[in-house]
Amino acid sequence: MKIALVICGCLAFASLSLSGCANAPGKPVSGDLPVVPTAISDFNILYGQNCSGCHGANGQGGAAIALANPVYLAIVDDATLRRVASNGIPGTSMPAFARRAGGLLTEKQIDVIVGGIRERWSKPDALDGSVPPPYAAKEAGDAFRGARVYATYCQSCHGIGGHGAQKASSIVDGSFLALLNDQELRTIVIVGRPGLGAPDWRNDVPGRPMSPHDISDVVAWLAAQRPQFPGQPYLSESNPTGENR
Prior knowledge:
Blueprint: H1 2-22, H2 43-50, H3 52-55, H4 70-75, H5 78-87, H6 107-121, H7 143-153, H8 155-158, H9 174-178, H10 182-191, H11 212-224
Helix pairs in contact: 5-6, 7-11, 10-11
């Protein structure tokens, strides 16, 4: 009988001890536990941490184009969005985000970002019945013809020779052109930069949309303005400070 009482007493003490530990001050709760980065699947978190710095809050654009531009989403397919997000664009400011390409995101997280962009910001009537130029060029442009295209469609805002005017800044600045490849230039010409007041290919000249050839030619003209060594401040090999830059 005494042994049974002792056992019961020990069990009761153990139960009270465990109950006390469960309610002990400082014991972490589920919300306190760190989230494994690869387990994050919320679009708002993934976009905010990886995309908003360049593409702007809510996809409105910033250093890079707006992803919340329905015209852009109407000409680009999901495979391209996924490839760019995963692999980046070599030689530009767009980095690779997929883990297999040196980034931090899983394939599932890339899919969440691409799907979220499409679901939130695309519009079925974005083109309003218009047939846009193809996203990727089907033929090489001609820079000589592109100079005339520029004068017709772009000069009124960006000034003679693309060096900027009252309405818009220079688009032949070497540092600017060094940050964009030809496809990025083409994309901007087609979809515009709504946040900066730059129209898409349909509205540079009212009632006279740019043709696919116009797009390719003006991109070729812009690419021809890209310096071989962007950012080089000296016109010769001599360096007044004795430093190599």
